[in-house]
Specification:
Layout (H helix, E strand, L loop, with lengths): L4 H14 L2 E5 L9 E5 L9 H10 L8 E4 L6 H8 L4 E6 L2 H13 L6 E5 L2 H4 L9 E4 L8 H10 L8 E7 L15 E9 L2 E8 L1
Parallel strand pairs: 3-4, 3-6, 4-5, 6-7
Antiparallel strand pairs: 1-2, 7-9, 8-9
Length: about 210
């Protein structure tokens, strides 16, 4: 059946609206299986379920009761997973207003307000307002922006990572940046690493 021009217009509008939202799935913990909406914004690249499962297997003994910082939260895939698995507190920093508002809506949906705090701000500005170190830090910046080194420097300069802090680093394989070959190499030990397609995932501990 051919749609009228009015119906066609409405159909296109509905399709356009629905295509702006994707989903992430929490794979473990108290919210296991819950699906959360994600805004379809350029550069937003949630960590895949397969890689996320590997990462949280690495962190199985460390995430519960941890104070967590998600530096570039994006879709919230890592931060919300940590909260679900019993982190004491999770701060998600996201610069994009639309994405940050979606994170806030998801936190409200899960009634996670006491545990999960979403800050809509540039990471390098927000970091100056924190005054206690974190047990676990997720660094998963937008690809092809060369932000890892400056992020690490900011964390160190603001004393937000200390001996025993864990740092998860996810970046494009082609970036060429290696923490263990950098000026920071003597401060960290590499605990775990995995290559998944074009993505490098590494877990470090500050010595």
């Amino acid at each position: 059946m051919k749609l009228s021009s009015k119906s066609q217009s409405k159909s296109k509008s509905t399709n356009k609206s629905s295509s702006q939202l994707g989903e992430i799935r929490i794979i473990g913990g108290q919210w296991r299986g819950r699906k959360l909406k994600v805004q379809d914004k350029e550069g937003l690249r949630p960590t895949t379920d397969r890689l996320k499962e590997t990462v949280f297997n690495w962190l199985m003994m460390d995430v519960r009761q941890a104070n967590v910082l998600d530096c570039f939260a994006g879709a919230g895939s890592l931060g919300f997973e940590a909260a679900s698995r019993g982190a004491n507190s999770v701060i998600c920093v996201e610069k994009n207003k639309v994405a940050a508002n979606q994170l806030k809506a998801n936190a409200q949906l899960l009634k996670a307000g006491d545990q999960l705090n979403v800050i809509q701000a540039d990471f390098f500005t927000a970091i100056k307002t924190f005054n206690t170190p974190f047990d676990l830090v997720f660094i998963d910046p937008p690809f092809h922006k060369d932000m890892v080194q400056t992020c690490m420097q900011a964390l160190l300069d603001n004393h937000l990572i200390v001996s025993g802090s864990l740092i998860y680093l996810e970046q494009e394989l082609s970036s060429g940046y290696q923490l263990m070959d950098s000026d920071f190499s003597e401060l960290f030990s590499l605990k775990k690493e995995k290559i998944a397609g074009q993505v490098s995932a590494q877990l470090f501990e500050m010595i």
